[in-house]
Amino acid sequence: MLFFMFFCVFLAVSVDCRVVPGLNLDYFSEYGSNCVNYLIAEPGVCLKYEECETVKVDEKFNIKPQICPTNETLGLNLVCCHEKPIHAKIDYSLLDNYTDVDICFISQPIYREPKEPIPRGKRAWEMCLEYQEVSIKARQLHELKVLAGVGGVNARLREFPHMVLLGYGKNFSKAEFNCGGSVISDRYVLTAAHCRYSPGVGFVTFAVIGILDRYETPAEQDIYGVKKIIKHPMYKPPKKYHDIALLEMDRRVIFDIHVMPACLHVGDPVDDSEAYATGWGYLGQAKELATVLQKIPLWQVSNDTCIQKFSPYRRHLPNGIDDASQMCYGDDGEPRDTCEGDSGGPLQIMSKKIYCMYVILGVTSFGITACGEIGYPGVYTRVSNYVPWIESIVWP
Ligand SMILES: *[C@@H]1O[C@H](CO)[C@@H](O)[C@H](O)[C@H]1NC(C)=O
Ligand SMILES: *[C@@H]1O[C@H](CO)[C@@H](O)[C@H](O)[C@H]1NC(C)=O
Ligand SMILES: *[C@@H]1O[C@H](CO)[C@@H](O)[C@H](O)[C@H]1NC(C)=O
Ligand SMILES: *[C@@H]1O[C@H](CO)[C@@H](O)[C@H](O)[C@H]1NC(C)=O
């Protein structure tokens, strides 16, 4: 198994209990229905933005309106409206316990239309919009239950609900977990082609979805079997080109607050200068595996530098880096603790166009540094290059 070197940043997230066992896909807010504000846990009413004077007052205090998810198409922006402005009631210390994703869900509107023409990957983009709605509904249900019961906002929600831990071996209790992946639909997990197989253990057989801690015992419903491994047809090991694969799950993936797909980068302009890699890798050379999922900030490395750092190498990289299908991300030159993370996991950013959704830019492929060194970027499979292939299998 090829491991990849990472810079570790601990993600301090406690394992919260599962509140939403499945997702009621029929759940929508209607005009005039009740809502609960996440920040103050007080009931309000779903009204049109234009009709709610108090949200406009709150906006002056930087409190963005909380949306009510609807199943209408364009034009109906319902917000959770309170009789009085809420800004004075908010306990700002509560916000410290929210992740970026939580904040995003609290405040951002749904976008149902692309803001610009999509060069390719129309289907992937449409599915991303659909998943966004499902995702927002799941959050809404979750928050309603938590807040209604407890009256506080202490639950820490999952930050990377598309993360998958891949297991190898026939017997789950003896399986080895050596790669990561990403949920991209209710059937498919995206990973690296080299992750289809782990020397000495065999083919990938399990996908554990919706966990945060590598050693937590997953609920039965979180363990999926791999029904089919579809590596890219041009992946020819030991060559490292086209290191991308799709895993078909043995049953439909149930989305909830802990399990949600991520979107694919379809090639539109994005702010990709900084991205996050995630995985349960080694915490450093001769150190143990990460227990809690790690989130590693990485910086884009220019194509020229990437090509220069990985010169042509024997049968593995005979043509050097192919910048159309591979890319480099690395450290910012600051000394940090370095470590290895699992291959196959995502390199991602938060979408600025479809809010609250992650966009997968790359699949973690390989690196050459030893832990403790800085200055060597890692190589990621460039996802936008493979969108037509992915679409042909995942959303035919
Ligand atoms: C969702 O939209 C359909 C028609 O498009 C409508 O029949 C249904 O009542 C709506 N559901 C809710 C909960 O608003
Ligand atoms: C935030 O989380 C920490 C750790 O779980 C907890 O000790 C603290 O009380 C929480 N803060 C608030 C304001 O809920
Ligand atoms: C899997 O391993 C466990 C523990 O060694 C054993 O009890 C169980 O029978 C095995 N299951 C199968 C299907 O081989
Ligand atoms: C690297 O090259 C690819 C295509 O060959 C291009 O799409 C991408 O924008 C380039 N990246 C940078 C950072 O210049």
Can you offer a commentary on this structure?
The protein is of the alpha+beta class and 396 residues long. It has three domains: 96 residues, no CATH class; 93 residues, Trypsin-like serine proteases (Thrombin, subunit H, Beta Barrel), CATH 2.40.10.10; 128 residues, Trypsin-like serine proteases (Thrombin, subunit H, Beta Barrel). Helices cover 16% and strands 26% of the residues. The chain is built from six helices and 19 strands. The chain has a six-stranded antiparallel beta barrel. A six-stranded antiparallel β-barrel has the order 13-14-15-19-18-17. Strands 2-3-4 form a three-stranded antiparallel β-sheet. Strand 5 and strand 6 form a beta hairpin. The longest helix is centred in the middle third of the chain and has 29 residues. 44% of the residues are buried. The structure holds 2-acetamido-2-deoxy-beta-D-glucopyranose (4 copies). One 2-acetamido-2-deoxy-beta-D-glucopyranose (NAG) binds next to helix 2. One 2-acetamido-2-deoxy-beta-D-glucopyranose binds next to loops. This is Serine protease snake-like. One of its GO terms (molecular function) is serine-type endopeptidase activity. Pfam families: Trypsin (PF00089). Keywords: Disulfide bond, Glycoprotein, Hydrolase, Protease, Serine protease, Signal. Belongs to the peptidase S1 family. CLIP subfamily.
